[in-house]
């Protein structure tokens, strides 16, 4: 499983999503399962160590009182209120007048749209039984087509696709703003599936049962109204379901608190409760392992700690593993991924044991992965008989195939991987065979898709290749290391033209939720930024997962400023190397990355010539009361605890704003339909800035969810707006 997908060890039941990571608009597919996330790098340049760097210190601020009672902009938290929406529309009009009519904006928007709609994109697929499933959006199908084909057809340049759901036609027929959110199949037969559709791109879904054999929604089938639901198949006529059953059925974070067993043909109200969590929990979910028939309940007590239970009858029996470990069960194997050390096993390790031996009390695990100071576990995926294990060494991924046998586990490298390139598992079917699909690309290397079969030395087939979306001639990729304030070496990637003078540079990062930023191909960024002479930089700061749990835990709660010191050190290092200057350096980030860029704007304004903040957290005094914010207190802390608010307020950009500061030009964007990070964060931050007398550009997409956009037209528009702003300020 990809660790960045969710906080549950079972993708089929996951309901807790991390804050937005990575870059919108990458050439990747949306399928019935979560796509492998990540980006990657191709370069033969060796790392360069910085012997000494002076990291700038945060600017002093005259902070206002940080209580709720004196916040004059609370009214902007009314998401769809007439006043706040009118406020947003007025700002949109002004921002569009400044950038939307410019030739550069129009040109960039057209180029990005061409990349997003290109027919020569790789249609990434998910294997489910005999079929390969794909979700496809283009100019003719902006909402998308859910379709399938066979491997034989997929090998053709133009496969014969069988369209199962035309989301555009469905939206027209039902007069609803449907956005595709995926499908969950009944395994291992795949005779039924549950379709998730969102109104306008929000996290909340409407769930409907679909028959892939009849290619139609099931009359009187399982249907759930709009909610942040958790649903898992028990058998063809029974589900585990967590949803909004009314008062008290959801947690403070807005996710299911109850799990019920729902039988076909009975009203949802008659579903039988099998487990209850606490309102302070993040969520509760349940699922059945199709191979063993075992039933599990997951109670997430915070973002990184959860109780796991094996249901025997209706009695939950605790699974004796650390609360902060991740687990999964497949083909009789129990995998345990450690965030902290346990007994003789080190943090960051991946352990395996026969599940029945574990239930009998045995604790002698085989260690499938153990990190060192330079390495980390990235993800793992099962085929029917093999485990695909992806790891990082100094943010360079590799992939091994592990297979159990009488003498233990054997390990084989998946393929010969060129230096500074990366592979990721695009699809497996853990119940039918050992085929796996690998996606390969780099910053300057267009994507390709390969097919392998575990245990077959003769396998290895290129299924698809994407053409280049921009001219990379004269460009290079390098990895450097900056030195942060406490002496820690921080890796970062530099992509762009070979240069003999400072150039406009765009720096991005994330630094949260143990999510690594690994490089990859982004055709839209390539055309809008790199091909126009800009340099692109990705900073692998603490808080992420580039070096495993220790890298993440180094920036948790009171240690959060380490992430911002790391990012500032990279910005300073770029200038000291002559790659750019402060006046030519732009920064962009979304969600937790928006909190990062908000802190760059308020604490390190002297380092940047322009800042873009997207779908951000900014008011850290109230974040835990807004939408899913309560689920992130394990990351940031509890503002209602006075001792914790003392350190939280030091990285709350809304409360760090002050008069007479040298703030750089700023663009803030968000989405009205974002029901994960409340748009009030962005609105209030902008209103406060304007009250202090600073100019700021603001745009709020009325739909799009936490990704900021729900179709290619909106994605191209939002990205073009950011690039037009950056070129106007840095070019």
Automatic annotation (TrEMBL):
<feature type="region of interest" description="Disordered">
    <location>
        <begin position="25"/>
        <end position="73"/>
    </location>
</feature>
<feature type="compositionally biased region" description="Polar residues">
    <location>
        <begin position="34"/>
        <end position="58"/>
    </location>
</feature>
<feature type="domain" description="Peptidase S9 prolyl oligopeptidase catalytic">
    <location>
        <begin position="529"/>
        <end position="726"/>
    </location>
</feature>
<dbReference type="InterPro" id="IPR029058">
    <property type="entry name" value="AB_hydrolase_fold"/>
</dbReference>
<dbReference type="GO" id="GO:0006508">
    <property type="term" value="P:proteolysis"/>
</dbReference>
<dbReference type="Pfam" id="PF02897">
    <property type="entry name" value="Peptidase_S9_N"/>
</dbReference>
<dbReference type="InterPro" id="IPR023302">
    <property type="entry name" value="Pept_S9A_N"/>
</dbReference>
<dbReference type="GO" id="GO:0004252">
    <property type="term" value="F:serine-type endopeptidase activity"/>
</dbReference>
<dbReference type="InterPro" id="IPR051167">
    <property type="entry name" value="Prolyl_oligopep/macrocyclase"/>
</dbReference>
<dbReference type="GO" id="GO:0005829">
    <property type="term" value="C:cytosol"/>
</dbReference>
<keyword id="KW-0645">Protease</keyword>
<dbReference type="Pfam" id="PF00326">
    <property type="entry name" value="Peptidase_S9"/>
</dbReference>
<dbReference type="GO" id="GO:0070012">
    <property type="term" value="F:oligopeptidase activity"/>
</dbReference>
<dbReference type="InterPro" id="IPR001375">
    <property type="entry name" value="Peptidase_S9_cat"/>
</dbReference>
<keyword id="KW-0378">Hydrolase</keyword>
<dbReference type="InterPro" id="IPR002470">
    <property type="entry name" value="Peptidase_S9A"/>
</dbReference>
<feature type="domain" description="Peptidase S9A N-terminal">
    <location>
        <begin position="61"/>
        <end position="453"/>
    </location>
</feature>
<protein>
    <submittedName>
        <fullName>S9 family peptidase</fullName>
    </submittedName>
</protein>
<keyword id="KW-0720">Serine protease</keyword>
